[in-house]
Amino acid sequence: MIHGSCLCGAVAFEIDGELTAIQLCHATRCRKATGAAYAPELLGEAARLRWTRGAERVRTYRAPLLSEPPPYVKAFCDTCGSPMPAAIEGTPFVNINAGVLDDDPGTRPAVHAFVAQAACWHEITDRLPRHEGRPPRA
Q1: What does R_g of the chain's alpha carbons equal in angstroms?
Q2: Hey, what domains does the chain have and what are their CATH numbers?
Q3: CA 95 to chain centroid
Q4: Predicted pLDDT of residue 64
Q5: Which residues lie closer than 8 Å to 62 by C-beta, 6 or more apart?
Q6: CA dihedral 96, 99, 104, 106 (to 10 degrees)
């Protein structure tokens, strides 16, 4: 069981089961949503996510669709703005920002995504695979 929470502590969740490797997403929307060079994202099964505190405080923002589904959806705490797990439309998964996890997820970064949109001020220095856009599905 992996636990996560927001900055102010109003929202907490737990997720059971295996999580994917962490994808470091450099897409413009992910950068803007996190305020960082990339979003460290991993997936878990939506059916295995349970809100343990503050589910009523979670809000979602659905960005206009740019080119192909699924649309970009950001879930966040309405008090502190921390990113919270967000359902990925049309899939059985939730997208989780690794920075809100309170426990070791048992997985590590494995790939850079959308490097064509990477911030001009950030240099990728590791040897993880890089994809100009979305990585191919395994």
Answers
A1: 15
A2: 2-117 (2.170.150.70)
A3: 5
A4: 78
A5: 71, 72, 73
A6: 50
